[in-house]
Every structure is written in structure tokens, then in C-alpha cells.
Amino acid sequence: MTAMAENTPQKQSSSNFAGTFLTVANSIFVILALGWCSLVGMLPLLLVSGFVHDLSYYALYLVALALSTPGIAALFAVFRDQPTLFSGNSALRAKVWQDHAGEKDFPPDWIARPYVDPNHNAAVIRPYFRAYARVFVRSLIMGFTFALLAFCFLYNMQIFAQMPFGVYVTPMLAVCLVFLAQAWLISLVLVAEYPKAKWLVTVKNAVMLSVRRFYMIIVSGIVLAAFGFALVTWSPILFLLLGTGVVGYMLWASARWQADKLFVLMANESKDKRIIDMYSAQSRGNNFFNAQSDWQQ
Questions:
Q1: Per-residue pLDDT averaged across 211-239, rounded?
Q2: Of the candidates 189, 182, 191, which has an alpha carbon nearest to the alpha carbon of residue 139?
Q3: At 291, is the pLDDT very low, low, confident or very high (cuts 50, 70, 90)?
Q4: Which residues does 34 contact at the CB level (< 8 Å), separation at least 6?
Q5: What pTM was estimated for this model as a whole?
Q6: Considering only CA atoms, which of 85, 34, 80 is closest in space to residue 248?
Q7: 125, 37 in Cβ contact below 8 A?
Q8: Could you write out the DSSP letters of every residue in 7-59?
Q9: Where are the transmembrane segments (predicted)?
């Protein structure tokens, strides 16, 4: 009996270690594989970056970025529902989905269904390209919308830089451009979350959300700067293959954290306990937004 009692903790310890090792291994595989898939989805941007090295052709870069936006949106969609990468809130949401899967009125059609089966921990390639197809049109529209806005800012910066008072205007335009870039990322999170949202409402709320928890912009900036420095200084192919998924996940996490303000409000406005539980929205939220009807069209 004593020997059996001594062996039980050892077995539990071995089981915990095996489970932890498998989770870590799956997480590394999922991050790497999603990075590789997103490189396919962002092929236009890769081609332009590889063959055009003159930044004066920024309009061409913006067009390539707009064409690559569905690839980034699909990456964000898979991050949303990939069970290996679940945070505590995401795991709770998946549990609510499964607990109410047989109910005809759940989930409502204004919330996107899961992009990844929660029972498949290492599912990557098929979910990514399914998500790509689901978000393609709406994310492409977002891509060209924000690319056009970015072009306006960059063109005006170019004009004002030639004027005496441009030294005062250009920095303000640059700050606006930074917030616009974060709003673009947030818009892709919203596209993945709300399949029936109107174009103008998505743009408006993405811009408004970009100024909430604005310190996340610093995180995104540091991540992109470090990634860009690594690509230019060391091996670009190596860092594209190994770092794209990690960078994508960090950008998604920062934009998702800012968009959480809207998710919580939407859940509370629905007055549906299942949706409130799904977003852990009980006793959270404020009146910063009031646009539920626009998101349920």
C-alpha cells in the first residue's frame, strides 16, 4: 500500500509534465504553421517588398498591403478560436459554445461561428484557408479603405514637408498615421468577430477603439520595429519563417485587447446570459459605444 501511495504522485507528476510538454509543442507548431500560412495569404506584400526597394513607391506598398489584408484577417480569425492558444476567456467562450450547441437560437447570426473546431488542438491549414474564404470580401474592403486613408496621410506629409510650417504639421500627421495603423488591425478583429457588421460602422468603431488602451500601440510598434530590424539586419527568410506567427499573434492580442471594450458592451446589450457568459461581460463595460443595432444588420 505504501509503495502504491508513493507511486501515485509520481504518476501524476509524469502526467502533468507530459500534458505541459504536449501543450508547449502544439503551441510552437501552431504558431509556426500559422505564420507559414499567413505568408501565403500575404503574398502580394511579400512580392512588392522583395522586388521594390524604393519607399517613394509607397502607394504600391499600400495596394499590396490591402490585397494582403485577407491573409492577416484569416490569421486573426484562427487565433480567435485555436484551442491550443486559448486564454482563459477564450476557453470559457468555447465551453459556452459547446454547452449550447444544440439550441436553435444560439449563437446569434451577428456573432461569427468558431473558425476552428475546439476539439482539434493542432488544426491549422484547413481552418486558416476556410477563414480566408469567410472573411475575404469584408477584410479586402477594410484593407483598401485604410490603405486609401494612409495614402492621404502620407501624401499630405510629403507635401507639408516642403513647406516652412510643415515641421509642425508633419509630426501630427505621423501620429494620426500610427493610430490609423492600429485601427486597421482592430478592424480586422471586428471583421472576424461580427460577420454582419456594416462597413462604415466597422471603420468608425475601429478608429474609436484605437484611442482606448492606446498604450497597446506602443507594444505593436515595438514588435513591428524589432521584426523589421531583424529582417533587414539578419536573414529575412529565416525570420519570416520563424517570426511571422509570433509577430502576428502579438499584434492580434494587442488589437483584441482594445476591441474587448466593444465586445463587452455588445454582450451586455444583448441581455442574453449565454452571450454575456461567453464574453465574461458580467458587470463590465461602459457607455463609450452604443451601436448594437448597427452590428446586427
A1: 86
A2: 191
A3: very low
A4: 75, 78, 79, 82, 124, 128, 245, 248, 249
A5: 0.87
A6: 34
A7: yes
A8: HHHHHHHHHHHHHHHHHHHHHHHHHHHHHHHHHHHTHHHHHHHHH---GGGHH
A9: 21-46, 58-79, 135-156, 168-192, 213-231, 237-255
